[in-house]
User: What shape does this take?
Amino acid sequence: MQFLRLLLLPFSLIYGTVMAVRNLLYDRKILKATNFRIPILSVGNLTVGGTGKTPHIEYLIRLLKSEFKIATLSRGYGRKTSGFMLVSDPSTTSMIGDEPMQYHSKFKDVIVAVGEDRVAAIHNLALMEIKPEVILLDDAFQHRAVIAGLNILLIEYDQVMNVDYPLPAGNLREWKSGMKRADVIIITKSPAILVPIERKRIIEHLKPGVNQALFFTYYKYGEFTRVIGRQGMMFMSSSYYLENRFTIVLVTGIANPAGLIEYLRRHTDKIELIRFPDHHEYSLADVKKIQETFDNIANSNKIIVTTEKDAMRLRNPELEESMKQLPVFYLPIEVVFHTEKEKFDQIITNYVRKNQYDSFIHQEAN
Assistant: This one.
C-alpha cells in the first residue's frame, strides 16, 4: 500500500496544485462566485469520506427550524437522476441520494433540494412560493461558486494529526491550508470523554486563526429503530439486545463505520460485519446475502443493525417484500458538543438573524 501511495504521489502533487490555483483564482475574484442575499451556511470537510456532515446538518436544522424556514441543498451523491429536484413523497434514494432522503424523512417542514449546480439550484429555490429564509449547503466547502456567509469545516478527530496528501495518493480534497477559509472548525467523532490536555494538543497543532471558532463534538447513539420488519413484531430497547448478548449482523455502506463498530463492540463481541461501498444502492442480491448470513448464525438471539443512511437505501420499495421478515434496525445518532454549545448556537443564530433580507432574488457576483 505504501508503495502504491509513492507511485501516485506525483499525481497528488498535480491535483493539489490545480486545487491551489483554483482557490487562488477565487480568492483574487478571477473566477466568478455568487453572493446571494440570504443566510447560507456551508458544511464540508477537507477529506473524502465521512466526517459527520449529515448529523451536523441535522443539528443545525434542529437549532434553526423553530425560527426560520430552512432549505437543505445537496448534490445528491449516488443518485441516478440529474439536475435540480425538490424532494417529495414518494422519492427514493436512487432519485435524490441518501442524505437528502434522511433529511426529508426526519424533517417534513424543511425544504430538501438536490442539484449539481448550486447557483442554479438557489435560483430555483428563490422561485418557490414559500421561500427559504436560510440555506444549508451540504458538502460544499470546495464548492466556491456560491459564497457562503458562514463556512463550517469538519475535521475527524482521528485524522487531525495525520500527515496526508491530496488525491489520489491521500484522502485530501485540497491542501490543509484550505482550513483558513473556515469560520467555524469542528473536531468531530471525538471521544465522549475528552481530557483537557488532548484538547489543548489539538488546538496547538491546528493553530486556528483569531477569527476562527473551534469546537469538539461526539456522537450520542439513540435507540434501535425498526427499518422493516414483520407487522406486529415486538421490538425491545437497545439495552435489551445488548445486555442479553444478541448476535448482531452489522450491515454498513458508508465511508467510515469505525465509530459504530467500536460502539457496538463495547457492548458485545458477537458481531458479523457485512460491509458495502459508500453510498451503495442495495439490490435483491445484497438482501439475499444479508439473509443468508443471518440464517447461518446458530444463535436464535440475533438481529440485523445498520446505519441511518443505509436504512434510507434499504427502504427501497423493490426490497421491502424480501426484507419484511427480517428484524432490521438502524441506530440513529445525534451530535453533542463537549463544551461551549451555547457559544456555537449563538454564532449560528446571530449570523442567520443578522442576514435576513426582504428577498434573496438580488445577488452580487464576484
The chain has a mean pLDDT of 92. The chain has two domains: 2-220+336-365, 223-331.
